[in-house]
Design goal:
Layout lengths: L1 H16 L14 H17 L2 E11 L4 E6 L3 E3 L10 E10 L29 E6 L5 H11 L3 E5 L35 E4 L1 H7 L5 E6 L3 E12 L3 E11 L9 H17 L7 E8 L7 H8 L3 H6 E7 L10 E3 L18 H15 L4 E3 L8 H5 L4 E5 L8 H7 L23 H20 L2 H4 L11 E4 L2 E3 L19
Parallel strand pairs: 4-5, 5-6, 6-7, 10-11, 10-12, 12-15, 13-14
Antiparallel strand pairs: 1-9, 2-3, 2-8, 4-8, 9-11, 13-15, 16-17
Length: 493
């Protein structure tokens, strides 16, 4: 735990010392804060004896966007650029609401169909489509707006729940099927920026005009950090990863310094392990831009190299301040996976190891949707068994969850999610301690045997096997039992 806290302090200091001219004080993709994070992690791994590869990744670097309302009120709004946005400046553009719903349940299908734009006049030289979050992919909304003749798109949050009030900035490269000629991923030829629900309400006023500016993006090169410890079984690779970048708004110490630091300390502790299976650790670039680093890595693997990977474990936000313990629901015991999200055979066996550990130490846990919302997406799409841990982001903790895990009902699992306040003070030490031990334990378990996942026989870890239990520091094999403290309370990712 001491080593993990030290890593977090260093990541915080790296962000604090960042003098990036565009996004200082962060470790975001394309900044010196990210470069310094890569140097820190790779230096320690090389010193520990790992074979370290800095895997280059081309990332899109967006400059700060501008959004100002000019009439009937004058206001400057915080905004951000959606992934896939085009560039341009629209000064005094007419804001045209598209099938929005600002009252009642605020249910919204705004911009999800071409028909939503029928009858709206986008024939001017500076028209801005105002669309509301809800129902379909952001890329679909932007695509139809551009097809209708809009010169820019503002996508504002839906406003139907506390976690859908604030500024929304996300990925607009994915579209709903089928859109003829635009199967996705797509890029747009016009600016696509975000807004909060309150900003959307203001912009929806009659006679509203606005100023939108998005500068052309730059292509920059970041690096995934890949560290490998060869085992006797070169063709049976046990892999775990965590994204190393932060958002542009802050230092990203819970998201995802927590997963990065826990994984780094696990790798350092296992550097002298003489396990049968080959171990591979990864720290991903540009996850916050749409899983860029991990997707690029998997896409670059040959069929033979992909087949070498026995399993992948993902650690993204493992110490949220208002946490609950969650495991990706690979066996779909609580949440059916979304349509189109595959769950490779063997994934449930990884979930079982996590759950049996929580059970053995007396910690309740819950399922979270196996959604592909983090860096395991590329692996499951490639057929590689995967699972992971999660302690919550923007979702609100319920009274029932607070009764089980403590914390504050009615607040987000991470109130500083994607904000400047995601500092070292935004990490829960108990969640960090429990999940760090579990990350190390699961890596050690699969280092010696992946038989439950892919049928490749192994052997037990040389005893005694350390595993904290209510009875004392020495425990038994994690695969025994499991599920005794499983609470299905509707936790979601």
């Amino acid at each position: 735990m001491k080593g993990i806290r030290q890593h977090l302090k260093v990541l915080q200091k790296i962000a604090d010392n960042s003098t990036d001219p565009v996004y200082p004080g962060t470790r975001a993709a394309g900044t010196d804060g990210y470069d310094d994070s890569v140097r820190y992690v790779s230096r320690l791994l090389r010193k520990a004896g790992y074979k370290v590869t800095l895997d280059p990744v081309d990332i899109t670097f967006n400059f700060p966007a501008e959004l100002r309302q000019l009439t009937p009120v004058a206001a400057e709004y915080e905004t951000g650029v959606f992934t896939g946005s085009g560039s341009g400046t629209i000064d005094g553009g007419q804001v045209i609401p598209v099938d929005i719903n600002l009252t009642g349940d605020r249910a919204s299908t705004s911009g999800c169909e071409a028909a939503d734009f029928t009858g709206l006049d986008f024939s001017g030289t500076a028209d801005i489509a105002l669309v509301q979050r809800g129902t379909c992919f952001f890329g679909t909304k932007a695509y139809y707006a551009e097809q209708a003749g809009a010169e820019a798109v503002i996508i504002f949050n839906q406003g139907n729940a506390p976690d859908r009030e604030e500024l929304i900035v996300a990925d607009a490269t994915t579209v709903d099927e089928p859109i003829p000629g635009a199967p996705g991923p797509i890029t747009h030829g016009i600016p696509v920026v975000g807004a909060s629900f309150a900003q959307g309400v203001a912009l929806a006023q009659s006679g509203s005009t606005a100023f939108v500016k998005v500068l052309p993006a730059e292509t920059r090169t970041d690096h995934n950090v890949i560290a490998e410890l060869p085992g006797k079984k070169k063709d049976n690779v046990v892999m775990a990863g965590a994204h190393l970048d932060s958002v542009i708004e802050g230092p990203g110490i819970n998201d995802n310094g927590s997963g990065s630091a826990a994984l780094l300390e696990t790798a350092l502790m296992m550097a002298n392990t003489k396990a049968p299976n080959t171990l591979r650790f990864a720290w991903w670039a540009a996850e916050e831009q749409g899983l860029v680093g991990s997707a690029d890595y998997v896409a670059g693997l040959s069929d033979t190299e992909r087949e070498r990977i026995a399993l992948y474990m993902n650690y993204d936000m493992v110490a949220s301040p208002n946490y609950i313990f969650m495991v990706y629901d690979a066996d779909e015991s609580t949440f059916p996976a979304p349509e189109g999200v595959p769950i490779p055979a063997g994934s449930a066996a990884i979930e079982d190891v996590y759950e049996s550990y929580y059970t053995r130490i007396g910690e309740p846990y819950d399922d979270t949707l196996f959604s592909g919302r983090s860096d395991y997406e590329a692996f499951i799409l490639a057929g590689i068994p995967s699972s992971g841990l999660f302690t919550g982001a923007e979702v609100i903790k319920t009274e029932e969850q607070a009764a089980i895990w403590g914390g504050t009902a009615g607040e987000q699992f991470d109130p500083c999610y994607h904000l400047e306040c995601d500092t070292i003070a935004n990490v829960n030490n108990n969640a960090l301690r429990v999940n760090s031990n579990l990350i190390a334990f699961s890596m050690l378990t699969f280092a010696y045997s992946t038989e439950s996942v892919n049928g490749v026989p192994g052997r037990k870890v040389p005893g005694p096997r350390w595993m904290p239990t209510p009875a004392g520091p020495q425990g038994t094999f994690a695969g025994e039992g499991g599920g005794g403290l499983h609470h299905d309370h509707g936790a979601t990712s």
